[in-house]
Amino acid sequence: MKKIIVGMSGASGQIYGIRLLQTLRQLENVEVHLIRTEWAKKTAGMETKWQADEIASLADRVYDCEDLAAPVSSGSFQRDAMIIVPCSVKTLSAIANSYNDNLLVRAADTTLKEHKTLILSLRETPLHRGHIRLMAQAAEAGAIIAPPVPMFYTLPQTIDDLVDQTVYRLLDLVGIPVAKAKRWSGGAECK
């Protein structure tokens, strides 16, 4: 069974995290551990019709972001990967600088020190030099920077199509391919 930690910080784009949780919930042999910041909860309420408890119900285990003693804070917690989506610049900065002031950042830092896959789906644009430096620092520490950039060769018809393709791409990066994912086939899909 794969253990995936899903982190959601307060950036815009909460639907990406929600859809990731929905997709993982449909898969067998995946255990999902969720950490959300308070601003993630507030932003989800502003951007979606999802209630905080509905989002929490998509995970097998939910942790309080202030609980630095939670199991996922330790390197002894067996995890396969961690995906933070959406990832705010604040969270990126904390991870890049190992500033472990909450469980989301501590779990990310532990994921890196244990040489497990950490994906940061940064939701910010445009970027200034400081943001780019932080992404470089996080990447140098071992994180994968994977902003939610839409793939138009899949001929998306709805926002859901765009969100799903991003989620499928994130799952590819942690070794969980989804059969519904549309893949590049030499341009045949564009005709």
Main features:
single chain, 191 residues, alpha/beta, six-stranded parallel sheet, 7 helices, 6 strands, 39% helix, 17% strand
Walk me through what this model shows.
The chain is an alpha/beta fold and 191 residues long. It has helices spanning 14-26, 38-47, 52-56, 89-96, 103-113, 129-141, 159-173, and strands at 2-8, 30-36, 61-64, 81-87, 117-122, 144-145. 39% of the residues lie in helices and 17% in strands. Strands 3-2-1-4-5-6 form a six-stranded parallel sheet, sandwiched between helices. The longest helix is centred in the C-terminal third of the chain and has 15 residues, at 159-173. The chain starts with a strand and ends in an 18-residue tail after the last helix. The model has no long low-confidence stretch (mean pLDDT 96).
Helical run tally = 7
Whole-number radius of gyration? 16 Å
Uncertain residue segments: none
Strand order of the largest sheet: 3-2-1-4-5-6
- Beta-strand residue fraction: 15-25%
Would you tell me the structural class of the helices and strands?
alpha/beta
Largest sheet data: 6 strands, parallel
- Output the helix-strand order: EHEHHEEHHEHEH
- Average pLDDT, rounded to a whole number, is 96
Tell me the span between the first and last alpha carbons: 40 Å
State the assembly state of the protein chains.
single chain
How much helix is in the residues?
A: 25-40%
Identify the overall geometry. Answer: globular
Count of strand segments: 6
